[in-house]
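Re: Re: ligand-bound prediction request (bumping)

Still looking for help on this. To restate: I need the protein modeled with cobalt (II) ion bound, output as structure tokens. Inputs repeated here so nobody has to scroll up.
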Amino acid sequence: MNEHGKLELTSLNYGKDRPKAKNPVKIEDLSLRDGHQSLFATRGRTEDMLEVAGRMDEVGFWAVETWGGATFDTMHRFLAEDPWERIRTLKKYFKKTPFSMLLRGQNLVGYRNYADDVAVAFVERASENGMDIFRTFDALNDYRNFETVVPVIKRCGKHFQGCICYSLTEPRLGGGVYNLGYYVAKAKALEDMGADTICVKDMAGLIAPYDAYNLITALKAAVKAPIHLHSHFTSGMAQMSHLKAIEAGVDILDTCLAPYAFRTSHPAIEPLVMALLGTDRDTGFDINLLAEIDEILERSIMPKYKHLLDDTRISIIDTSVLLHQTPGGMLSNLVNQMREMNAVDRIGEVFKELPRVRRELGTVPLVTPTSQIVGVQTVMNVLNDTPDERYKMITDQVKALCFGLYGKTATPIDPEVQKKALKGYERGETPIGVRPGAILEPELEKAKKETEGLAKDMDDVVLYALYPVTGKRFLKWKYNLEEIPAECRPKTLEDVKAEQELVKKAKSGCLVEAPAKEAPEKGTGVRTFHVFVDNEYFKVEVEEEGGAPVVRSVSPVAAPAKAAAPKAAPAPAAKKEAAPPAVDGTPLLAPMPGMVVKYEKAVGDKVAEGETLVVLEAMKMQNALPAPAAGTVKSLNYCVGDSVAKNAVLAVIG
Ligand code: CO
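Reply:
Sorry for the wait, this slipped through. Here it is.
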């Protein structure tokens, strides 16, 4: 590099045997975690990683990210795969490249703060199973939330990478909260904690090229630890930011293999290898090997995942991120949530309310889980608030944030919102001033007891401690005590071909065949559903008979004007909303589709009006639903773990 920060050409040998650059940019590959989490709903299966794992090990990556983030949740919930097993299996193929995982501080790989004993056990088990680098972050950049895990990472002899979540107060770096001084102070704090490397985690793709230059320059001057930049492509700036970061002396960059790159994922590695070829920061990677891996992926892996790619837009960049300074994943979640509530036309109000809610909740960085907390509360406000009352329905997570359970926010929480959120809060009405983990009761022994006879080792217990409802269900699948549902089973290339055949048939109008039997008389229990298949609309009448729903008639009708706009998913249409049926007593209706997490009362219990009766998980948030009236619980209509539609009668009070 010369004195102007420009790269110097040092070699004209472009072959595989070219001399090693003076200071090669180190690369972490994210294809197997953030890549498929960003593009394919985290649905990547272990078996599909094995086909290229051996070749990936030959590239020379500084590390491969293989675990953490949403993978743990998705694997045991939707793929019926043991997350621990994935690390052990991949380790057999990656013989020299270290593994990196994303650890959400005291949230580990979940969405709430876990007790210290669970955090310790988790890091120990992850280390033992083969994890090498712990990329640790806290959504609030409150490093007190690292105090439990970091000593365990160090004790296990592993690499502690401390993250600074990149956030903005203005459209560009600077302004009141998230300015250069903020980031330098955070980097120094991480170095004091013993960070082996420091990562700027730009999860929304917000970092602009010249801001990246100034930021990396300032960090390199302030701390000794190598600097790593993690930036999503979402807004379209990441490749430019990478290059400016290289000019500023960044040590490590994050990229994906081309099939896992761009859109809301990361820049691709291949163009970067060419851009740096022959310079003093040459990666040294063999471009032919990368092309070979890409070819295998394109041919035999990606067809299984193509249907998960968001193809609602042609553009691969999301300009609304530039407008709202909000992660792309969060934006698409918001749109989906509004769609589930049949209110997608009010998304503009959500974007308007969002900065206000964020400010009121302490100008938190928008990263999992705070992005969800702020996002879901914003949706709640838009849907439920009246002109004279805001925050009419407050999620449990917002209450926890106001109580201090996530940590210290960048700016103080609005006192009025805080007071309202904590009114009658189960943990107390006065926020805590200490490290959140310090007030949590140990959870591990309880988890051990609750899984007695089911869990076979500590990995099972920790999985259950992290995700009690879905974790228990997974353990039953794992030990053949319950059958794995068909939708959790892997898709093969043959399945993909069969599906394409079906689509072809449907398009040519041959899919609906003449009924073999005459339809019986319609009974009184007939319910009508609207089913949307792309732009076609069907009216379907369903009546339960002998326990199984029977489709009585499928009649295509002209699509109503509104139906064509959103690309509605056809299958769960029936789950979305049920008309409230007549019941004897006061029903507690599900205010939104979700999953029953627990009942706080049993049948026959007395309940006061407003007392929590059911906890419903919706949009990954737990919502305590209050009893609509005082009385005795007459019935609880669902089991823990059941998915329910909007307006489903969860309980009846008589
Ligand atoms: Co990321």
